[in-house]
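Batch manifest line 227
LIGAND: iron/sulfur cluster
JOB: complex structure
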Amino acid sequence: MQITEIYKSLQGESTFAGLPCVFVRLTGCNLRCAWCDSEYTFTGGRRMASDDIFREVVRLSPEGGLVEITGGEPLLQEREVVPFMQRLLGAGYTVLIETSGERPLVHVPESVVKIVDVKCPHSGEADTFDLQNLQALLPRDEVKFVISDRTDYEFARDFVTRHGLANKVNAVLFSPAFRKDANGTRDASHCLIDPQDLAEWMLADGVPARLGLQMHKFIWDPAMKGV
Ligand code: SF4
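JOB STATUS: finished
ARTIFACT:
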């Protein structure tokens, strides 16, 4: 697989937020979200054999625990990443995959937790989510919306309602978008939308979702990579 980085940190998002996690970040993405903080994954990386990646995961987390397969868009390397996730599951790891849902999800092993990042209008990549993937969502999965303004919020709220997402998956997550040039201070001033506004809209509308802040951007400098 083409790999940008492998590292251990705290999981910053999802219902697993705050837990130690090994991140396997694959190179390459077919989208170009306006607020992307992972542009360094678009090119480069290094070719690594599955055995070497597995050894590195075990070295970083010999005790087991969480492994997140992310990118970029990891399912661009589906042919190799699917057997790799099966191997991790077989070794007792809890495996998460973060994907945009633009690629088919049907081949992701059922025991893997899919964290699907449905793109909102101001990402610049709206309507890239493949609606057929709604059939592949399982009760352990999570669906995330990164929100930068009221239009994005209304899109997310209506998508959740229209597709009954709250009854389909373990969690629906609404997360304020971060400025991609954020650095220095570790506070909400870098969010493109004030988390307080988002929280109040969610409460007013009774949205069956949880507000998620990208925890790692409040712990470390938001410009830091590998955390
Ligand atoms: S899908 Fe993820 S990695 Fe790709 S451009 Fe969007 S935010 Fe960046």
